[in-house]
Amino acid sequence: MAKAKTPDSKKRRNEKPSQARIVAMRLAAWGVLLLLVCAALFGLHTLINRVFYLDNPRFVMRAIAVETFDGTVNGEDIRRKVRDYLATTKCIDANGDTNLFAIDLRGVRDLLRADPLVQGVEVRRKLPSTLALRIYTRVPMARLRGSNGLLIDDSGLVLPQIKRDISTLPDLVGYSGVTRVEPGDRIDDDLVHAALTFLRLRLTLPKGTWFDPSLVQIDNQHQQVRCILREKPEAYIRRDAILLLPAKNLQAAMVRAIDSMAQRVSQHQTTSQIDAWSSPNSVYVAQ
User: Which of 38, 96, 129, 237 to pair with 145, CA 20 to 30 A apart?
Assistant: First the structure.
């Protein structure tokens, strides 16, 4: 027999939807209040940023400070490039002034890093009125003969001409694609990288600077790096002496060559040829 529905049970069922609506209205009210608080905070932040920073004449850019380390890039050229970039953005006000806090630092960084000569950039605001730039440049290791004055760094990246003196850099000869390369290209050639390895090792190995090349030639047929050396009186190396190195296991061959030269230097013997290529375990040295 079915249980009869009482008036109280009907009342409780009618009260449940009302309670759910009340909870929903409370949640909605809290949500609206939260949105209003967020909007107020955002507006306050924008106002403070505008009054104390963006519209503050104290932070108008007065100078661009450029710090470089070796003269590969010109500081004035960097300043001109940054000013031209800022002129294309919205950070210049009606008076022609640029507020430091309106400058897109990442945009300036990306602009400067697009230069093949630039390896890294630090951009910061130096309050109250200076945009400070620190430029880390790529170091050219050799001149690419036949490329109309282009250079190459130790990673194989082709660099444009630079304004500083590069007369001490050796010429790199023998790369077949030299007439087709442009600044920003990266040469992926085993023999070119062997030649660059030699140029890097001569600066890091003990007594490696005894080998001061005026020309580095890569030889595909013999898988060889052939160097014409400048005169080095302290190492008793004659002018235009020849150094032969294998493209493979070049570092070990170079260490053997340095050891052989050390013996000759101790005996005050002059040298016109160092052959670490013909034999994998010995070095032939000619006076």
Answer: 237
- Please tell me what DSSP assigns to residue 60: B
Q: Which amino acid is at 266?
A: S
Q: What is the pLDDT of residues 9-64, one digit of tens each?
A: 555 555 555 777 877 777 777 888 788 777 766 665 554 555 445 677 888 999 99
In this structure, the number of other CB atoms found within 10 A of the CB of residue 268 comes to 7
**Where is 195: in which H helix or E strand?**
helix 190-204
Alpha carbon distance, N-terminus to C-terminus of the chain: 125
CATH number of the domain at 140-286, out of 3.40.50.11690, 2.60.40.10, 3.30.70.660, 3.40.710.10?
3.40.50.11690
pTM: 0.75
Amino acid at 45: H
Token pair for residue 14? Answer: 């009618």
